[in-house]
Amino acid sequence: MQFVLVTATTLVRPRDLGALRGALETNAQHLASLWGYEPPAIDVFASARTLPDFCIPIMMLDESTDTVGVLADHGWDAARHMPFLRVFVQQASGLVSGEWSVSKSTSHEILEAIVDPRCDLWTDMPGRPGVDLAFEVSDPVQDDYAIGDVLVSNFVTSSFFNARLADPAAAAEFVAAGGRFDFKGTLQRAGAIAPSGYLILRDSTHRWTENAAGEPASLSKPGAEHPLSRTERRLAG
Amino acid sequence: MDKTVLLPILNMLVAGLTRALHSDLPGSWNLSTKWRAFGLGILAAASGAFDLVGNGSTWKAALITSVATSGSGVAVLLMEAAFGAKNGSGPTGTGAIDLSAAASSIPPTPKLPRMAMVGLALVLALNGCSKIGTTGLGWPVLAKCSADVGDLVGTVGQILLSDLGKDAISESGKEKLQQLGIEHGFDTVVCIVDQLVKGWTSKTASVTPERSAAILRAQDFLAKTGTKIERVE
User: Fold this and answer.
1) What confidence tens digit (pLDDT) does each residue in B37-72 have?
2) Phi and psi (nearest 5°) for A130?
3) Global pTM?
4) Rounded to a whole number, what is the distance in Å from the CA of A14 to chain B's nearest CA?
């Protein structure tokens, strides 16, 4: 996979993207190694007008023209048969730091695009028969870690989706043997939710979000409840 | 002075002086040999300065350019003295050395050897700068590069990754990088290519087929420029 960072805003310069590129690539390598993917490459391009067909664009934009308050999203470009990612930097807390930094939002979208490029995968919710869980790797934790001075997104491992490891005893044994449910080692069992995370769930009748307290997720991420945000697209099906 | 201001001025100075001092061209001035020699000195200095500022050359290379430019000018003056300046199509310097007696005995066909001499001197001047490589004119002998790649990194990276050359940079890619060099400085472009290769070949970089191809193109390009890179951290 070849991602290319392209800026179409004066708030982020190409040289800023050049400074982020290495950390984002390392972050993606962390995910790739734990999930068994080929390590993706991330580079900076000047323009998205003439993209080679192997490139997945990550556009830096001031703000969304079709959504309100969204920090970042990604979707599927049916014409190119490729994902596309957008990061809306006007509301970001900074380039590399802060809770909603450009680097963290970009990282969040890259990781989720690697695992679920079309944004349409569901699996059984561990420990809850009859409930499906969206294949989102950053949402359950939605926290970060630093690579150098760049904050990037934490993510869950494939073990997080393993129904057998929803059992606390099995999970404890797994962790004691060096297993991890997320990159940072925050979560203690499959299907668990970190304090800042949430899940997107569905059953035969409806879809909903849920936070660590088992309540509908009160998403701190601005705009995440907007109809065209990734979460809402998931919920809408 | 800013390079974008200085370069056009130097360019106009070199072009204007070349025209003014060349007795064959319309618009040349009727100057005495003394004044033409003086103008030649200014032309040589301006050529060296243009080389230094425009092409990012070293002082040594710029000096060679100046000397070679002087050489070509002196050659022209000598050829005019030997064959007579009036044999060209344009006006003649009225104060030129009076060789009318010698001129009258020489057949009026000096234009070809004089042009050949000027051409030879020009080639010597350009070779003296070591700037004619397979990628074209302008690439510096030495580039001192810092880690800061600047905003051109996306443009250069896009050229290298999008290029269709398999194991080497394509003609189209070379032309694009050459154009960037003209617009933003040849040393800047070389430094960015070098920095990209450094990043792509680092131990932590992801290896993809597209990136591996881009590395080959970048290395081929750097080899063709012949530029020695000195990294300044």
Assistant:
1) 777 677 677 666 666 665 555 555 566 666 666 666
2) 90, -5
3) 0.69
4) 5
